[in-house]
Amino acid sequence: xxxxxxxxxxxxxxxxxxxxxxxxxxxxxxxxxxxxxxxxxxxxxxxxxxxxxxxxxxxxxxxxxxxxxxxxxxxxxxxxxxxxxxxxxxxxxxxxxxxxxxxxxxxxxxxxxxxxxxxxxxxxxxxxxxxxxxxxxxxxxxxxxxxxxxxxxxxxxxxxxxxxxxxxxxxxxxxxxxxxxxxxxxxxxxxxxxxxxxxxxxxxxxxxxxxxxxxxxxxxxxxxxxxxxxxxxxxxxxxxxxxxxxxxxxxxxxxxxxxxxxxxxxxxxxxxxxxxxxxxxxxxxxxxxxxxxxxxxxxxxxxxxxxxxxxxxxxxxxxxxxxxxxxxxxxxxxxxxxxxxxxxxxxxxxxxxxxxxxxxxxxxxxxxxxxxxxxxxxxxxxxxxxxxxxxxxxxxxxxxxxxxxxxxxxxxxxxxxxxxx
Length: 421
Ligand code: IMP
What we know:
The protein has 421 residues and is of the alpha/beta class. The protein is 31% helix and 22% strand. Inosinic acid (IMP) binds at residues 10-12, 37-39, 125-128, 130, 132-133, 220-221, 225, 236, 270-271.
């Protein structure tokens, strides 16, 4: 069987820690979409590690980590990441398999990302500039290069063709010297990529399923950044939702069992785009400081606001969430009160539906507000320890989404996770 774990907001929900906690229950951890735009933070013996392309099971012995066909790989940043993890004593060569169908991010993809954002000016997406959008564009446009191509004799030729196409689009927006410097790094880093085993991951994974092995599919970004269901065009270029695991790994829906959906106890967003419950005031600044809300991939300050159960309800529906996980609950300890966005009023009509054109409409969010608990959540060890006001928050989320809460994360420590039911 396969379970999936994914973000229900705009990314950065704390997926890394939860995958790390759940990993011992599985034989395989597999990434199915995204690429180095992701940043999954884990702590190994108090040492902070941020994973971008590598699955979060690498620190557990006996677990195989798979990078699926739906992922896009930048060999340059991948090499940096591999070296950092190998320096911690992890034998990545025997713990990680890469789908030969995963697409490659080449230097001109990054240049195109930069050019596209420059051209959009004020309307820029706020991309991480890792080349994600242009790489998925080439995949869909049937021009991309795949991991399996790098060992073929015509790789250089295919690369040059794609590069020429990109250069004709780029004009002189990104200096040629900059692209050439990236290119040298790119070709050097292919030697590192070739150290790992490339496989027909769809066959390998299905074979493991038939043998009764358990797979955890690890999502990246979040549902509200999904290319189809997110706040388009301010989204990433892949399907971040449950359905993405089928196309990103080659696993049929019949194998899917649990869908773990992760949400912070509040909400953040990095980059541009609609964010109905955003706090553009001192309260938002306070949440940013308390939650240390700065991007793990780009270092950018994250926009902060209250938890939005309208968006959560939508995300639970699209993903078929069976188990909710609330993270960073302890961050709210020092806020005077907590608000939960429970419905929207658009043009005088109140509803719990997430609108198609949320960015153009004036959405008024209706909140339920209550005083915060006067107990440190990080000192709680069981459901019974949790204060009543926190249970009010859990109940509001459960009632509005129709999904039970299974875990609450109340600190960065590996053991700071309270198990419900
Ligand atoms: P891209 O995927 O780098 O093109 O960025 C598109 C949008 O998704 C931007 O708003 C990014 O900030 C956001 N984004 C991409 N990856 C992540 C992530 O892992 N966490 C949070 N936001 C992300």
